[in-house]
What does this fold into?
Amino acid sequence: MSLLNEILDYNEKFVEEKQYEEFITTNLPDKRIVILTCMDTRLLELLPKAMNFKNGDVKIVKSAGAVINHPFGGIMRSLFVAVYELKADEIYIIGHHDCGMAKVKPEGIIEKMKERGIEESTIEQMKFSGVNLDEWLKGFDNVTESVRHSVDMVRHHPLMDKTVPVHGLVIDPKTGKLDVVIDGNKDENR
It folds into this structure.
């Protein structure tokens, strides 16, 4: 049986038994917060529990390393939608210790692409088209500085409401302990 079939079999039972009822909420975040965090599997349940959030409390946007690498990319668009359409009044950028993005090397990813069938000519065509794959795929050296960079990108974006606090934190993926990098409520951070 494929993983998809296992998921669909489980889902059928989940719906029949009305297990979804405990998760019913609206599409608006009750605590009026949007979080950008890493897609690391260790944070799936740990992060909301460590922050005392339940289903429906917050919007969560995920990207590798909680990195915003383009001011007009999908991550920023999601944050704008959360603020302007879904009534989020605060933004939290939460990176984590022991992040895989601190170990990512563009040349390694490109080699793995080739191993999985991406032709060298395709990679060259990307470069010829103006895509700097090394820059686009690179990770970071320091999670605190990476969080600071993402907070600055949001806070200084010309379309962001300047009254919205943008906080930066780093979570320990083992214990859930949060360290504040930037407290967006302080005037010097706005």
User: Anything to note?
Assistant: The mean pLDDT is 94. Strands lie at 33-38, 58-63, 90-96, 166-171, 178-182. The domain at 30-104+139-182 is CATH 3.40.1050.10 (Beta-carbonic Anhydrase; Chain A). The radius of gyration is 19 Å.
